[in-house]
Design brief:
- One of its GO terms (cellular component) is membrane.
- Helix 2 runs antiparallel to helix 3, helix 3 runs antiparallel to helix 9 and helix 9 runs antiparallel to helix 10.
- The radius of gyration is 18 Å and the shape is globular.
- With 237 residues, the protein is mainly α.
- The chain is built from 10 helices and no strands.
- The protein has one domain.
Length: 237
C-alpha cells in the first residue's frame, strides 16, 4: 500500500510539471516576484536585506499552496477521476494526500532556489541555521497546503476555486507583515492576519516571539483545515 502511495506521489509530481497552473503558481510567478520585487525592496527599504529570503519564500509557498494546488484537487474530485477511485476502492483521501505531498516537493524546490540564489543576486546572507530554517518552512508549507486542500475539496463549483483562492491569498500576504511591518496596521487587521499561517510563519522564521507562540496557532489552523477536509471527503463518498 505504501509503495503504491509513494508511486502516486511521484506520478502526481510529474503530472504537476506538465500543468501550466502549477508551473506558473509554484515557479514562474514566485521567482519573477522574487527577482523584480526583491530589487525594489532593497532599493526602497535597505533594512529588509536580512528578511528578504523569508519574505520571498513565504510569498512563494503561500501562492503555490493556496492558488496552485486547489485546481488540481478540483480536477480529481469534480471529474471522472473520482469514479475511478470508487471503482478501484481507493480511499478518497488518497487524492488529497498525494497532491499535497507532490506540492510540498515543488514548494521545497522553490524555497531552495530562492534561498541559494538570493546571496548571488542580492548579496544577502543565508539563514544562520539552514536545517532549522527549512524545518520551519516545511511546517508553514504543510499548514498552507491544508488550506489549499480545504479549498480544493470544499468548493463545489470548480470555476469558483480560483476566486476563493485569491480571497484567501491576498489578505494572507497583505496582513502577514512581509510587505510592510504589521505594526502599521490597525488592531483589527492585525488580529485578522492571525487567521492566516503566513503571519505566524514570518514571526517564527524572523525570530519574533517564542516557539510556542508561533507554532501552536499554525497547529490549530492545520487541525481545523484537516477536519474540514475529512468532513468534505466523507460527503463525497
Amino acid at each position: 500500500m505504501m509503495r503504491r502511495f509513494f508511486y502516486g506521489i511521484i506520478l502526481q509530481w510529474k503530472m504537476d510539471l506538465r500543468s501550466k497552473n502549477m508551473l506558473i503558481t509554484c515557479y514562474l510567478v514566485p521567482l519573477l516576484f522574487f527577482v523584480l520585487v526583491g530589487e525594489i525592496f532593497l532599493s526602497v527599504m535597505p533594512w529588509t536585506k536580512e528578511t528578504l529570503i523569508p519574505t520571498m519564500t513565504i510569498m512563494g509557498v503561500c501562492m503555490g499552496a493556496v492558488i496552485g494546488m486547489p485546481p488540481s484537487l478540483g480536477e480529481i474530485y469534480r471529474t471522472d477521476i473520482r469514479k475511478m477511485y470508487k471503482a478501484g476502492q481507493i480511499p478518497m483521501s488518497y487524492g488529497v494526500l498525494s497532491s499535497a505531498a507532490a506540492s510540498l516537493i515543488h514548494l521545497m524546490i522553490l524555497s531552495g532556489i530562492i534561498c541559494l540564489s538570493a546571496p548571488v543576486i542580492f548579496d544577502v546572507s543565508l539563514p544562520e541555521h539552514l536545517a532549522e530554517y527549512f524545518g520551519k518552512v516545511i511546517v508553514f508549507a504543510a499548514v498552507s497546503l491544508s488550506i489549499g486542500a480545504a479549498i480544493g475539496c470544499g468548493i463545489l463549483d470548480q470555476a469558483k476555486i480560483p476566486m476563493v483562492s485569491q480571497m484567501v491569498f491576498l489578505p494572507s500576504i497583505m496582513l502577514s507583515g512581509i510587505m510592510f511591518p504589521a505594526g502599521y496596521l490597525p488592531k483589527t487587521l492585525r488580529m485578522a492576519g492571525g487567521l492566516f499561517p503566513a503571519s505566524w510563519a514570518y514571526r517564527w522564521i524572523t525570530g519574533e516571539g517564542s516557539f510556542m507562540e508561533n507554532f501552536l496557532p499554525m497547529c490549530l489552523i492545520f487541525a481545523v483545515m484537516c477536519v474540514l477536509c475529512a468532513w468534505r471527503l466523507r460527503s463525497l463518498k
